[in-house]
Amino acid sequence: MDVDRKKFLQIAGGAAAGIIAAQTLTSCKKDDRVEYIYTSMESPDITKYDKTFFIQVDQNKCKGCHTCTINCPTGIIDSKEPGGLHRVYSPDGCVNCGQCLVNCPYGAIEEKVSFINDVFDAIKDPDTIVVALPAPAVRYAIGEPFGMKPGEFAGGKMNAALKALGFDIVWDVEFAADLTIMEEGSELIARLTGKMERPLPQFTSCCPGWIKYVESFHPEIIPNLSSCKSPVAMMGALSKTYGAQNKKIDPKKIYTVSIMPCIAKKYEGMRPEMNDSGFRDLDATINTRELAYMIKKKNINFYALKDETADPLLGQSTGAATIFGVTGGVMEAALRFAYEAVSGRKLDSVDFAAVRGMGGVREASVKIPGGPEVKVCIVSGLKNAEPIIRDIKKGKSPYHFIEVMTCPGGCVNGGGQPLDPEDVFII
Amino acid sequence: MKSLLTRKKFIRTLTLGIAAISFVSNPVKQLFAGLTKTKSRTDGVYEQDRKMALRKSQDNPMIKQIYKDFLEHPNSHKAHELLHTEYINRSAGVNRLRQSGIRI
Questions:
Q1: Which of A130, A273, A365, A414 has the greatest CB tally within 10 Å of its CB?
Q2: Choosing from A62, A100, A228, A411, which is the catalytic residue?
């Protein structure tokens, strides 16, 4: 058959129109997704926190491309045969980081549990005091679903949106990040000076994916983990004790909602040991995508909101807290504290450029006047921690303090952060 | 002399080329989009850090307040009760999976 110019253009035009129509149809279906990621609205059973799949592959959408396995730090997401359908085999080996989900080119990986309905119910109940606990990295991404540029600071608007949604109190997890530095930094100094009989190097303990990874794959190095809870877990316990006492609220009536750039935090909030306040420290955990979904559901015009600050008592924070959201941030914040605490001198410049960057493993050494030379290491991307753990088990590790973040780049690239619609190739 | 590239051939190659690129570009674009997005968010974080009036945790007035009124000092007994935790050995589950032949 001979195709002339006219026929060719007709066919090409028809095909293009067909593709556009198909894309419009699929984009209409996006409504039941939470920011392009299919999220089951089922509330999790917190008693089965260890048996819950937080992430699973939709077998109808998987194309067997293996991208998830490449991005998985443990290899628990895989297929039986090459090119076959992939799935998460068991909740046991999964650290719930969600890097498979954010990297899936077909949008085939789903979130299996969500507290969205529980949070809406708590807000509706007039007797419940609903407390929002937003993480540092959320405010650098929550603007994106509303047309703001990636990295544009939206902290003020985020606080305003939380109030508009009906949260009674906004207490900032950045405050708890500062508190973490006081506790974790003091713990490091105690280990360095031999006042505490715990081994060196000390690992950070903010990242829930990292914690579950150590507990599951390397329990031998549990003593190296800082005993500090993550900032939001501290915040939950403080909200129902110190916060409740000061605000003269019955802690029974407080419902804490942890708002995280993360899927693994859902697991952390459900841990049975998170009940030091005498109640569940964290009643619900949602991520940045789910918060954006809630704001859209309530038809709040995010971009038009006036900036608001977090509520007093547990609301103020410093630069050291806001950098918790990036790889190397916890390390830099800890150094800003340890330097002054050990030397007794004021820091001239608080910028520790040596610990910044995007590399998977970065090391630096900081001389503290009147104290030791502290050798630090920053790991971004859980797979990169393996050689360092091997050295520790052999007793050869040169470091004193190591920060590990599961997601490459840190929490700003967390598994719960918004994605670009064009990143999720929906078929 | 026969022309190497006729009009028809040119259009055909071009169309096939565009089709191929549009199929392959998505994962590639996504890879770079992810990286640049993480980079811009990171830049945003450091920019905000520079703008903050206070940049060290120990200077936070609310931190000073909570230690004065409630927690006493870092790593105090009270702090250990509320802010510190213990970890659980969960290797049994992973070992079971390994025995069943899953490579993790």
A1: A414
A2: A411
What is the tens place of the pLDDT at every residue in A89-148?
999 999 999 999 999 988 899 999 999 999 999 999 999 999 999 999 999 999 999 999
Residue A284 and residue A345 in one domain: no
Query: Among this protein's residues, is A144 annotated catalytic?
Result: no
| Active-site residue identified among A81, A197, A273, A373 | A273
At A233, list the tokens.
Answer: 């877990």
Whether A307 and chain B come into contact, CB under 8 Å, resolves to no
Q: Is residue A5 part of a domain?
A: no
How far is the CA of A371 from the CAs of A140, A182, A341, in angstroms? 36, 18, 10
Phi, psi dihedral angles at A129 (to 5 degrees): -95, 110
Judge if A218 and A190 occupy the same domain: yes
Domain enclosing residue A371, as ranges: 178-228+319-412
Residues A248 and A345 in one domain: no
Phi, psi of A86 (to 5 degrees): -95, 150
Please give the Cα distance from A262 to A267 (Å, whole number).
Answer: 10
- Is the same domain home to A134 and A242? yes
- Our count of domains for chain A comes to 3
According to DSSP H, which parts of A273-327 are helical? Answer: 288-297, 319-322
**From the CB of residue A29, how many other CB atoms can be counted at a distance below 10 Å?**
10
- Report if residue A427 sits inside a domain: no
Domain boundary among A94, A112, A130: A112
| Per-residue model confidence (pLDDT) at position A423 | 64
The CATH number for A135's domain is 3.40.50.1780
Which has the closest alpha carbon to A229: A300, A180, A270, A162?
A180
Let me know if residue A314 belongs to a domain.
no
Angle (deg, nearest 10), helices B91-99 and A208-217: 60
Structure tokens at A191: 């280990």
Distance from CA of B84 to the nearest CA of A (A): 4
Per-residue pLDDT reduced to its tens digit, A283-305: 999 999 999 999 999 999 999 99
- Size of chain A in residues: 427
Interface test with A, best of B8, B16, B56, B76 (most A CBs within 10 A): B56
Asked if A186 and B15 come within 8 Å (Cβ–Cβ), the reply is no
